[in-house]
Amino acid sequence: MTTCSPAAAPALPVAWQRLLRWCALALLLGSAGGCASLPPNDGRAASTHFNQPEATPLGQLVQARRAQAGARSDSGFYLLDGVDTALSSRLALVEAAQRSLDLQYYAIHADASTEVILQRVRDAARRGVRVRILLDDFNSVGEDAQVLRLAFEPNIEIRLFNPLPGSRKTMLGRVITSLHDVGRMQKRMHNKLFIADNAWGITGGRNLGDRYFGSGDKQNFVDLDVLAAGRIVRDMSASFDRFWNDKLAYPVQTLLDQEELDALNRPRPSSSATQPAMPILPVTTSPTVLPSVTQAAADQADRAVMDLRTVRLTWAPSTLLVDEPGKIGPDDDEVDAGETVIDGLLNLMLAARRDVLIISPYLVPGPRMMAVYEQLRKRGVRIRVLTNSMASNDAPAAHAGYARYRKALLAMGVEVYEMRSDPESAADLLGSGSGRERRRGMWSGGPGGSKAGDGSSRASLHSKAVIVDTRLAVIGSMNLDLRSQLKNSEVALLIRSAALSQEATRQIENTMNTAAYRLERRDGKYYWRAPQGASFGDETKEPGASTKLRILVRVLAPFAPDEML
Predict the structure, then answer these.
(1) Residues 359 and 446 occupy one common structural domain
(2) Which residues constitute the domain of residue 544?
(3) What are the distances in angstroms from CA 66 to CA 54, 200, 309, 316, 466?
């Protein structure tokens, strides 16, 4: 047996020192979690969506656009594949709304782009628009808790879904005080909806925050949303209502202690024509960043409303795939979950005849998904998957789970592509989407330019979509992993349109052909192949990943259950 003196032992990396401190604190303070509990959730007033969208200008616009197109289908769609359209389209809906705004999100971050949206939402409430915001509780801590200030504005309600007890000062505090109920802590509302007057809506992968709109300091997400109009939006609103009125949706005011109430509900000057209103969020962004987000995007909002009259909607049959709130219930048997979004998606893939194209940031398939892939491959169906590389993945543990399946996926003939993380990938993919917005001048001048293209932010894949036989497109909040299948609630649009499916396919293939490696395995080793003509070359180890990150993922792998990733 070989021994080493203390002096010879290498120092632990900073990341591991931090992890050990977290574990030690959790062990020392874990018993405190049993002392925290949630208040009763009684006395909530049930509410439902505005049920006469045709009486609003937005509803009338849908009818006029459908008649103009001579469309048989009652729902229209437009892909929001660039940061310009992603932010400005939301601002356009807020500006045009007259009766209601319903927002449902997993995370709303307190930063510059969110400040733009929330200021407009507050202004809408002050002109009489009813605003309901449903937010998963997990991320409403630290600086992000400032978003809850909006709950004290007239005509605005905020409810937190599946809340955790304890202080909102730090994420560590929230986790420690919830260790007695880890199972419930793991179940999150991952839905993302943005609905105006029950006539127009947006769903997809984006949360609200700078990283989702091309203005992140260190990382930017390559994402995909769909702007929807017509009958399908009524289905989106009905889904919102089910979650809003569920027993797990708590009004913000019932969850805050007096110190938190005092901090969030401090007096603010009233808005008037001569006195500007106090900002919703105490954003502290550098002067070179803030104007690009606030001024450029806000200045375009009015014109974006007018562009709703000319945006090229694709009218097509559609279905809303959405989980029931019971999926996030307190029990592990999910007796109230029913058929889930992932169940429907797997059944849809099984009907494929030629090809299935998947884009999923986190790819931890589990036995059932792997069985579906194997069955498809035996029938000769081509399967292509675009996911994150180790370096572009914002969750190292999720990559550890994915890495377990790479060998089996390649062995059955699945074509696997991994997103490149380098800053130039962010610049290429975030700023202009497919390019059609800039060619038409639509929603130009958005927030993406200064940050997405300055070479400082790394790209991370966040889009979630499945395209079947280039005729069915499913775009939503779901990942192709066990967390989306078993733990989180999800929502997605199933659109039966060859034109829209082909457009989404071109966008995904553009990423594969310009900013992703194709993974190969030969003689027991992995190889990352660069696209033909790319400015970067092949790799024989995890591209762009530091030695510390590779070690971290390797060490995490044995302790990361698939269903928890």
Answers:
(1) yes
(2) 316-564
(3) 13, 13, 11, 11, 27
242 and 326 housed in the same domain:
no
What pLDDT does 282 receive?
Answer: 55
CA dist 392 and 387 (Å) reads 9
Same domain, yes or no, for 364 and 441? yes
Is residue 221 assigned to a domain?
yes
Q: Is the pLDDT of residue 10 over 80?
A: no
Residue 290 binned pLDDT confidence (cut-offs 50, 70, 90): very low
Q: Are 387 and 418 a contacting pair, CB within 8 Å?
A: yes
Beta strands of 389-429 (E only): which ranges?
A: 415-419
Q: What is the CATH number of the domain that holds 302?
A: 3.30.870.10
- Is residue 16 in a domain? no
pLDDT in tens, 356-371: 999 999 999 999 999 9
User: How far is C-alpha 55 from the chain's CA centre?
Assistant: 31
Q: Report pLDDT for 457.
A: 78
Band (pLDDT 50/70/90 cuts) for residue 178 is confident
Distance CA 108, CA 220 (A): 15
Query: Are the beta carbons of 227 and 77 closer than 8 angstroms?
Result: yes
Q: How far apart are CA 187 and CA 296, in angstroms?
A: 38
How far apart, in whole angstroms, are the C-alpha atoms of residue 85 and residue 297? 10
Helix/strand/coil for 298: helix
pTM listed for this prediction: 0.87
